[in-house]
Amino acid sequence: MTDKSNHMEKSKAEGWSFPKEFWLANVMELCERAAYYGFFVVLTLFLTNIVGFSDKETGLIAGIFFASLYLLPPFVGAISDRIGFRNGLILAFGLLTIGYFLLGVFHSKVAVVFILAIIMVGGSFIKPLITGTVAKTTTETNRARGFSLFYWIVNLGAFGGKTFVPYIRQGMGLEYVNFFSAGMAFFALLFAVFFFKSVETTGGNKSFKEVAQALKRIFTAPRLMALTIIVAGFWIIQHQMYATMPKYVIRLLGEGAKPEWLANVNPAIVVIFVVPITQLMKRFKAVSSMLVGMVLMPLSALAMASSQNGMGGVMGLHPLTVMMIIGIAIQGLAECFISPRFLEYFSVQAPKGQEGLYLGFSHLHSFFSALAGFIMSGFLLDAYCPDPKTLPLGITEAEKAAYYANAHKIWFFFLVIGFVAAVALLIFRYVTQKIDDKKELLGEASVTR
Length: 449
Known about the structure:
It is built from 21 helices and no strands. By secondary structure, it is mostly helical. The protein has 2 domains: 17-205, Growth Hormone, Chain: A (Up-down Bundle); 213-449, MFS general substrate transporter like domains (Growth Hormone, Chain: A, Up-down Bundle), CATH 1.20.1250.20. Helix 2 packs parallel to helix 8 (143-171) and helix 2 (20-40) runs antiparallel to helix 9. It is globular. The chain starts with a helix and ends with a helix.
């Protein structure tokens, strides 16, 4: 066998060869995603039905909780670099186990807000720790494969958690979902304590000051901030899978409905189509690919708006269920066009050598969209699809139905947001292209001189 053949065989073997810590990190991520999505898909139901918050209060609390999970990771990542990945993982899963467990035990409003803060801090550690471990336990040869495996694990965990949770919610009670999440987090904690060895962290340490300065530079970069705010329009609609959809479906179809399964349509579509769509659109500019997704989003909201008075049932499914599946599937397709290319565009805009810091804030759009989307959801549910406990006592079924007759109008608000965001991105593409063309012409002119 020639040296060239030996090298090819070695590269092929290394391509799928990962150290133990890589696989442990993925197992822990599987557990954490199952815990998180199993908990998060019913969070608004829990806050309203068990704790007793109004729809408006729930929107505010859930919005702050979810938004913080997208703002804090770069800052806690700076802590993780100093205490070590293993200690960081033990701390994170310890906080999550305690937080989820306490949430299953204590249901007073003050206690729940405090416990959510514990979960928020624990959850903020996970993204930089796990993705950092994947990055540090892969090589140039197998990094792409390593992250593709990681991506599948993330979606598998999310899918599994949301699939299993309805049986707990309907069989035991909504509050017991928290014990499921606590169990999954504790399982991950055991792996961190007994099996995981810390990976090398030298060379990438960033101070709080450097992280804060990167955030400041992003806020003062007109092009990045404009695109972030525009893409937040997409995520405002996407977040309704967790903010509005569970309550909307259960209040219109009854407690036997399984909105958790409907939410699973999104990751299923993304896993199936993200690679072929990214390949299809790679010869187009990033903003052009994102524009396709943004145009799809109003259609998603329109399908959901048609859910109350939509087409007949299919395969025994209620018409509302059918239209929600269609709407969520369109969202999944839109995400395939938008998310990978947004990250690409964001990284290109980063100063040389600061790509990692900038990408730490690449989900800033979700910070804005979670706050806006969940708060809007609370007000819209209160107006068009109210909590049954707030309806007058003793009303007939016909009178009760009248309170929900216009529930579908909720989605028209998000249709408008999606339409405005699509138009805004079209304008953004036109303006930035003009600016870039002008710079190119000026550059050519200076060279000819």
